[in-house]
Amino acid sequence: MRKTAAAVTVVLVFLAASCLTTGRPVSGADIAENTWTQKAPMHETRWDMLVAAANHRIYAIGGITDEGVVGTNEAYDPTTESWVFKQPMPNPRQGFTIATFKDKIYCIGGILKNGTVTGLNEVFDPATDTWETKAPMPTVRLSLRANTANNKIYLIGGYIPAFYTTQNFTATPINEAYDPATDTWSTKAPIPVAVNGYVSAVVDEKIFVFGGVENIKGTQIYDAETDTWSQGATSPYSIYFGLAVATEGFNAPVRIYILHQDLSSAPPDGPVNGNAVLHVYDPGKERWSKATIPPTNRSGYGFAILNDLLYAVGGAISGYQKFPDDWIHGPSLIARYANNEQYTPFGYGTIPPKVSIASPQNGNQSSNAVSLNFTVNKPVDWMGYSLDGQQNTTVAGNSTLNMSQGLHNVTVYANDTFGNIGASETISFNVSVPEPEPATFPVAPVVTVSVAMIAAVGAGLLVYFRRRKRQPLATDSKL
């Protein structure tokens, strides 16, 4: 009889005991996809800052306030719907670029309080609430984005800031990669069409570069693993001066969401940000589509993704009063925001969990105690396995199965909070335990004496004693 071991070791990825509930799952049909929701605003109104997701929170760092450039660092916790101030950036900046690697946030480049363009590379560790200075950007540039792929942070294109004296905004094709493990930079294959003011996002270790001032409808794709470039589907929209994020396939299908301003609809003396729009790119099918526009029409916001939910934070609206004078001296601000708006993407809540069995594997098992080790890629409400096609057995994590000899198969299932059920591959294995060798014991040697031998020895002794009896007695020779 097969029995499930009573002792269960919980080592499931992304799962804690608190995730296990008995309530009714939320159906994907109950979720209002392609919608925006107002969330708790930041404590401090800011624009031209950037945001990033790390340590299960959204961090809004740097930017500009009414007092000028700041190093403010606020953390948003979606579970408590609250913001908390964290250790500020050591060197306050605006217009820098940002990337996350292994739950640490890298803030690279930008403009300091005194107007100096810098290549500073400062990293924030949310776990310790501390900052550390790393190797600076080799080629100081502005109007570019940072992307994490293949265990490195890539800074592509942008322009070298000579505009203070020459008004030169010419883009550069430079592609430089930072390795956090060694704190070093290296030069990679340059982008085919140099751009600045583009948007970018990463899918499957590939960096998708959309638009830019010089290539507003182009899509250029960098493969970080092979250090090569290719061309993607042309965008039907003019894209520049915005931000992009990619859903990861945990709770929503993999898509790239691009939040930017439609400057073509802005009048010359109107708001510089134009109309804020949200576009969607499907990298698998190379298809473009429109999404619901954000509630607040603004620019200079931060844009980040956490658990496949998108967040647009902060920003401002500015406009020209005397075009083109304000292009040189700077436009006047019309409105400033601390807004935090959450977007629910298409297909959110429809992706089943991905379940992978590490052991047993297809083939033979030499023990009756078979380890069932598996992982699930996101938190779930229920897990269980079916052995040999029988009814599911609920488990809280990895288990040990006591099996009989012969052929068996096992499939693991998981049910997420939206009611989606994911199944692993069915593993077939054969339990074949060698029979124990029979015990052997030492045997003392035994001497076997036959009856014939006994008779022969007895006859010999009889003859001997008869002869002895017939011999004369010894006498003294002197008698």
Q: Could you give me the name of the CATH homologous superfamily of the largest domain?
A: Kelch-type beta propeller
User: What is the helix content?
Assistant: under 10%
Number of domains: 2
Report the principal-axis shape: elongated
* Largest sheet entry: 6 strands, mixed
Residue fraction in strands: 35-45%
CATH topology of the largest domain: Neuraminidase
Highest CATH level, the class of the largest domain: Mainly Beta
Q: Between the first and last Cα atoms, what is the distance in angstroms?
A: 104 Å
Architecture (CATH level 2) name of the largest domain: 6 Propeller
Average pLDDT over all residues? 85
Radius of gyration, rounded? Answer: 39 Å
> What is the number of E strands?
40
Low-confidence stretches: 1-28, 268-272, 321-327, 446-451, 472-479
- How large is the count of helical segments? 3
Give the structural class: mainly beta
Care to give the gist of this entry?
This protein has 479 residues and is mainly beta. It is 6% helix and 39% strand. It folds into two domains: 3-12 and 351-431, Immunoglobulins (Immunoglobulin-like), CATH 2.60.40.10; 32-344, Kelch-type beta propeller (Neuraminidase, 6 Propeller), CATH 2.120.10.
